[in-house]
Each structure stands twice: as C-alpha cells, then as structure tokens.
C-alpha cells in the first residue's frame, strides 16, 4: 500500500508497524505513531471537512489540539464520537473515521450554497432575522436552524464504555512535556519530589518532536525519549500520557482527563475508556507551550493553507509531506525554519514571503542560495483553487501582483502562549508588547509557576532553563533538598516577529475563526454596531466559541477589533477562560456511578431471604424494601397486599423493619436530653418500657416520630422513620454539640447494627415463644404492651419490644445484623404452624392507616402536632425544641386542617390520595378548599377504600359529609368524615 | 427453639462470585470475625478512660491513629470517640457479644460502649495495586509520605462513608462500611481493581498468610 506523501526515511513513526485504517469508507495504510491527520496527509488526503456555517471545503490547519478544521466522527453505532480532532487522534489498526457536516459527500456538499448567501449570514444574522414573531422561535426557527447547523452527530445511544475517576496527590504537577516540562519534571524528580507529568499527546517531548533542534549536540527528540525513560525509572514520578489537564480549581486542585483506551483497536474490558483525575498538587509547573497564529488574508481557508510550524511537525515527526509545491508566508523568523526544513527534506519550495521589509541575512541567505524566491515587504492577497490550493497571489514590495504556484502555503504570525489554565480562578492574562501576545497575569493560581513558551520564553535554551528553575523551586518548596543540576545546552533559534494582523488589500473572505466561519467582515460589523468589548465581540460573532475555543483565532480577532476601534489589544483585553480547557465526556464525570450505581443502595440483612420469597422491592430513600410478596393465585398486587394484611389481622405476619432509624443514647443526662428534643416527657420512662414520642423542628412543625425504649437508667434506644433517620441523627448531634454541650450524652447510630422484624397478629406471641423457647416469658403479664427487654436466644443477644403499628398483638425483635438472615428464616419456621406469612411495606401501610397511625404522608414537614391530633402529647411542664414556635397564631388557628378519617358514601368508590376536600355544595374552586386526603388504602378488613386526611374543623365534623375532589384524575367522591381509627378503636387486640 | 444461629458475612456472597484466574494486584479478605464497638467518652471522663484503656496495654490515641495490643485495638475516629476492635473475635472462646459487654463493664462510668460488630463490614485490602485501587475512590493522600501504618481516616468512597486504617507497611488497609452498603462498595472496589486482578481469601483463617489464596478474576459482565 503506497503512501505517496511519506518521506522515505526519518520521523518518529514505527515503519515496522504498518496499520490500515478507513476514512469515508476508503482504506489507507499508515504506521504506528501516526495521528489520523498525519496518516491522511501521507496518503495525499487534504480535503477533510466542511466549515460550520458556509460549508466551505477545509483541510488541516494544524497538527495539534488547536485544530479548527479537521474534525471527524470516529467509530460507529453507540461508540460514535463526533467532533474528534484528527490531529490528536492516535492511529490504530482498523480505525474508522468519517467526515462530518456535509451532505451528500465531502466533495459535493449542497449546503455550501450558504457561501452564496454569505452576505446575508453575517454576524448577528440569527438575532436580527428570527426575532419576530416570538412564537415562531420555538416551533419554526430553532428547529430549522438546528438542522442546518451543528457539526458531528451524537451517537444517540447509551454510552457502552466504562469510565473511571481517580485521585492523585503530588508535590509537583507538571503540565506539558515539552523542553520546559521535561526539564521541570526531571529536576524535581531527581530531588525526590513526588511528580506527576501530564501530557496531552501520546508521546512525550512537545515541540522537541517537531523540530530539528539539538540538545547537547544530539537530536532533541532523542534527549526527550532518554529523559522520559529516566523519569519512568524514578519511583515517585508518575507519567500520564494522553492526559489533558482541563481545569484549575480551588485549593490547588486540578482536573485531568486520561484517554486510557481510546487508542486501542480492541476494547480492554478491564480498563475504562477514560479516567477522570482529580489531582491535588502542592506546586504546579505549567509548561503548556504555545500555539502558532495564522495570518488573516483573503482565501486563507483553502485546503493547503497551514500553520508553518505544523508543517514542520508533519515533516519531522511524522515524515508526512502535506503538499507537493510549498510557499511560506511568515511575519516572523519562525516561518523561515519551515522553508529550511522543507529544503532539507528535498521538497519543492516556490517562494518565501515576509511582510517585513528586512530580515536577518542568516535567515534569508540559505533560502535564496537554494534558488528559492524570497519576497520581502510582500503580502499574500488571494488564493485560487477549488477544493485545494493551486495558486497564491502575492503583492510584492512594488505593489505589483505576482502569481505563485503552490499547493501548500505555510503561514506564521507569531505564537500565543497557552495560558487558559492560568485564568480559571479568575485572573486575567496581560498583553505583552514584546511578544505581541497574551502572557499570564500576575495573579496566578496558588502554587503555580509558568515556564517556557507558555510564559513567552520561546527559545529552547530559555525553555530548558525555565523548566530547571521551576522544577528545582517546586521541589525545594515541598521540602526536598535540591542540588544544582546541569541544564543541557541547546542550539537556539531566532524568534523575531512583527505580526501582521490582517491583509487589508486581499480579496475574498479572510477567515479568523475557521471553525465558526468568523471573518474580518464580521468583526467590522460588530465594531460598527457597537459590540466592541472582548466579551461582546465573542458573543455577537461567535468568535472563539467553537469546539477549538478559538485557540488559533482569538488573538487575531482581538487585534483586528483593537485596530478597527483604535485601541490597543491591551486596552481591549481578552475573554475569560473557564474550565474545561479540553472537552470532557459527561460520562467521565459520572465514572462508575451510573445506572443503578448512580448512588449507593442499602440492603437489609434479610434482603437475600426476601428475594428468595419473590419480593417486589421498592426504593425507600437509599434502601430497597420489600413492597409485597406475590404468590401464585394472587390476581394482582392489590390482592397480594390484601392477603398480607388479612394474614396479620387473622393469623400472624412478619415484616422487615430494619430500615427504621435506630439511635443509641447513653449518658447521665440522656433522659433530660430526650425531654428537650421530644414534645412529651421521656425521663420518667421506666427501664424495660417503651414510649411513643414526637419531635418538632425549631419552627414548631413535626420533625419525626418514633419510639423510645429504656434499657438502663442511662441507656435509651430511639427509633425514627426510615426517611428521616439521617436527619434526626443530625438534629440530635446538633442539639448536643451546639445547644447543650454540657449534657453528658453519647449518641451513636445503630441502624446498621440491628436487623429488626415486626411479628404482628393474634398468633405473634406463639411465634415468639417458639423462637425464644421457654427461657423467656412473653406472656401478657410478664411482657405487656410497650415492654422491652434484652434476651439471649441461642447464641445471640437480641432485643425484644412489644410494639404495634398494625393495632394487633405485635412484637419487634432486633438481632445483630449478621444474624438477620438466620433469624428471619428461623422466625418464618417458628410461625409456620400458625400460618405466618411475610408482608411488605404496602400491607404495612394498609394496617397503619386502618389503625389511624400517622406515617410519611402525614409527616410532611407542613404539619404540627396539633394538626395530627397529638396536641395533648405536648408537655406543659417542660421546655422542648419547637414549643414556642408551635404556639404561633397561624399554627393554632381553629381552622387549620386537622387529622380525621374518611370513607366513601358509596362503598364501591375509590378514593385517591391528594384529593381536595370541599364542602358538598360548594363550587370546585381553590377558595373552597378545606384540606386534602393524605393516605388512602383499600381496607381488606372493612372491604372498601379508606383515607386519612387533614380537614378544617375535622374532629368537630365527624359523621358529616364532604366531597373528595381530584381534578387530576377526575375523581369526585362523596365521603363521610369519621374517626381516623378504623379498626379496633378500643385497642383490645393490642393488649390481647 | 433456641438454635445456634449462623452469622452471615456482609461481603460473603460477593466474594464467592469469583472464579480462578492468574495474577492479582489486589488481595481482599473480609474481616468477618472481628468484634467492633464504638466507645464514646462520657463528659469529663477522658482522663479516667485513658487510664482504664492504659490498663489494657493501650495508650488511647488522641487523633486519627490506631493503637493495638495483641488482638485489641483502639482507633481514633472523632473527638472523644474511638472504634475498638477485637481481631478474630469469632475464634475466641468468648463470644463477641460477651466481649462488648465486658468492654462496657471495664469502661463503665467513663465511656459508653455500643456494639457495632454487625453494623460495619470490614474489608482488608493489600497487594501491589492496593494503593492504586484505593486512589480511585479515596480523596485523601495515602502515599507513605502522608499516611502510614497506624493511621486512621474517616472519609468517603464513592459516596459511601468509610473508616479506613493502615495495618502494616506492605501496605495492608482495612476499610469499614455500613453493612447495608457492602454490595455498593463491592461494586466500586471490584470494578476499580479489575484491571489489576483480585485475589480473595476465605474468611475462615485467622492469619492472612496462612490462608490458602484463591487468585481470581471477576467474570466479564453479561452484555
């Protein structure tokens, strides 16, 4: 397979590792070490994309992450990745890439007609055109614009890959592995510091890989690989290739994205695709280098017009020749090196054009003596060619136009330090007249040093010295002894520059932002219409808002605006760089926490048993709870729930209540503490007894309810609802630590320590007898309602409570969680002869509503103890949290909705929770609203639907009628107001 | 009935889902036999508590450190609060419930002792890639420069609250999580350690080195 534009030798590609890949369906050959861009260029492919707005044909501008044009879609199906910069895509065998933003094909793109309409499509076109009528925006304008705009297509399917997150800590984080970064990492690493070297590229070396520099008399790329090897040998140095540091955050924290397997042909199941690093660095050396600026002239977007230094990268690093006949257009000394390198590679160079009237003879003489036309004081004023550059028109120093044949034009207009990361914490970059570019401002992020080209020190000698200095200082800062280390000697290059912001005399569109098709005309328009500040300019023209974030365009755009509005770039300033500096897949932020692992799930000790019983589970906060246990023959879930509730009322049922919060309270002042947080008095509770308690928030509303059991004079165990367990613990900790630190109280959550099961129903005592054996007396006399005890059952210590939420004779037994599985099985076995069945949260809810107990729906945070019929529980003999605020007039108003029960007048009618309560003959309006139904269940005991609800004057209206109106579900049911206790109001069963 | 009830290890079923494979950078064992209790000093009794713990041969740590004597250890997990652990409590003649009770008795009046033997599930993690695996979830610095044998941290991993302590210089770590979260924690750990391979030791042995190691790798997830 031929690669017509590949040099016969040289480069850092592995010629013994050939690879095959496909682009737009065609097969090509390349080598390991290529990027997709270098491989395409080596194969002579130069048309790679269509621009965003005008759909103009585009080729590669650059060879790195600044690339605005060469965006492709990688892979297919669910792994399709749009907008990938081909210049950064590491080639692997079998890679599939397609061009994007074109239809039907790259060479013939219908939407390129936009170019004809270009005069209409200037800056602010959408804002001006699609203003009116406003209603058209959502339905017509936006969908149409969205169809026409956009670049790649998202996969439209769930991301099948794995992502990971990781934390790293280091003494010195070095960002970038060019000469400054390598030198900094090496110097700090040799001192013994913990170093992380993050490099976006897959190979360490930065520009050293692209230039023909020498260090210590040997090729610089060799020095880079030797340095990389030494770094890898140091125990506390971590090298992260393919890792982009994308954000700087408070407290010296950095975000970085490592592309772990993107470059592999086959996915490795045990490895994530990408890894998101959170790096905490005591010191950071930012050695991110610089990006070359293109020259802005008419027709500067024609495929074949490239950055001069990028051409050197293709030649020297990849042995790929991105053209056949070259010309160079440079406003600085740097571009002349491209001509020299091209000559060294025996490429044809037709002209070197420099707008400066004079350059150093050391630059021009070797070019001229090679027989190449040198044009000083000249400008490129236009380009010709269809899909590829053929001819450039040059206006020479005598202002006559010369036609130069070239299919590749290297352009250079100086370098912009890559300083986005310095601004993430709010600092502004400052303009340097010396290098005609923005450099880091004075207020750098804490702990950060900027070195090398990133701070405008463009020569190799400067970069190496900067790196050595920064690495040494960082190591010293971290407390490591430093010794003077030799800085390698480099050959140096001239770096003179007089930037040429815009060729005013040129013909055709002069592009600034290639990806967003922002031209000089757009900047002119923005200036005319008053959008002159850097931020307005950006938003009005979309300059720098594309996926490349304007790396090659921002400064050119700002400089042109500065000239148009007669200001200096320094006065104009720049826009703010914010994270992320490089694109990060959303999935990387989620890491492994996606799908059902989005947040942790809590399972009770009896979960496995419940699964075996065919439980249907329901989310209860972080818990998974058994909702019901279907059996063959149950018609539907309601039949299952009725059967379970019926079993509790008539035989015995067993329910896992382990999720209820449990808090161990000890200390000499435990009783006094509880008196202050509950509305009722608990210090008087006898040892071996349980009491129901209610807590208020400071504002007087109910916080939670539960039971309090006393096991010793200085030892209580509280229960809370499942939903409020953490909140109550937090509340109690606050009360103890902040309000009453003088009290001797120790609080520990023991929710997890105890598996707890409710055993409820007329036969529950006999089940317990079976379980405990004769050693423990559970008779009514020895263990009455609201008793508690610690007891030994076999080899375990358990806690038994005689509590009932269902209104039946009932117990709750708590055992250490590690025995939870064994005990639930033993309980079921012990209950088998009495027809014991498990019941879930639904039946649990039915039973408590039948009995009129409040639950989560009534503890809504908007109800007072009085609303819930618990006014008499509020002690008048002591103070407690919420007491004063609960007396506010609105909270004790006579017409506050208060808890009562409801039954439908026609027993067959269904009630719905949330239905509003209205007087019978009143209009169905909000003004007539008197309350609402909070909890609704079908009562198998009564054979019809029943409800709890909050109704104005409710307790005084028992026996009267109202209507339960549900506009959402078209419910309008006449109801009778009744006592909230539907079953066994005398409590006989409870004490049975 | 009054049976002998079998205790169930929180990670048991997760660890048993592994099959044999070669090479492992991470070794895991559930410390299902330890006894655990939270000890909180009573008001004004810190000095007396320290004295009584001293009588057990342990200088009560005043910060996030673990101090051990034989199989007994105290770990500082908060101001005035410690996690007391008894290694291999299940293998001693004394039951673990009895140990908690005797500890409560020994410290009566100067500390509240709350049994947490069932409340926390503890995994012991070692191997050449233990640190690299933990770095995928632990935000604090565990490098030997910053965290050494005997150090304790109360932190979180993948939104799960953990207590983490380093047992030796290998390094071997122990991590406790609320028992109900064992499944979620294991998901995080097994996914993160997959690239290194995981070896799981049975819960039976009192000593890691004497346990016959099963070198295992997780089955690839069913697609």
What does this protein structure show overall?
The complex is a heterodimer of chains A (992) and B (223). With 992 residues, chain A is an alpha+beta fold. Chain A folds into seven domains: 1-158, 2Fe-2S iron-sulphur cluster binding domain, sarcosine oxidase, alpha subunit, N-terminal domain (Ubiquitin-like (UB roll), Roll); 163-290 and 417-477, FAD/NAD(P)-binding domain (3-Layer(bba) Sandwich), CATH 3.50.50.60; 297-412, FAD/NAD(P)-binding domain, CATH 3.50.50; 502-564, BFD-like [2Fe-2S]-binding domain (Arc Repressor Mutant, subunit A), CATH 1.10.10; 607-659 and 753-847, Gyrase A, domain 2 (2-Layer Sandwich), CATH 3.30.1360; 661-749, Alpha-Beta Plaits (2-Layer Sandwich); 894-992, Beta Barrel (Elongation Factor Tu (Ef-tu), domain 3), CATH 2.40.30.110. Helices cover 21% and strands 27% of the residues of chain A. Chain A is built from 21 helices and 49 strands. In chain A, the strands form 13 sheets. In chain A, strands 8, 9, 12, 13, 14, 15 and 28 form a seven-stranded mixed β-sheet that branches. In chain A, strands 40-41-42-39-33-43 form a six-stranded mixed β-sheet. A six-stranded antiparallel β-sheet of chain A has the order 45-48-49-44-47-46, with helices on one face. In chain A, strand 1 and strand 2 form a beta hairpin. Chain A is elongated and about 115 Å long. Chain B has 223 residues and is of the alpha+beta class. Chain B folds into two domains: 12-32 and 119-217, Probable tRNA modification gtpase trme, domain 1 (Gyrase A, domain 2), CATH 3.30.1360.120; 35-115, Alpha-Beta Plaits, CATH 3.30.70. Chain B is built from five helices and 13 strands. In chain B, the strands form two sheets. In chain B, strands 1-13-12-2-8-11-10-9 form an eight-stranded mixed β-sheet. Chain B has a five-stranded antiparallel β-sheet with strand order 4-5-6-3-7, with helices on one face.
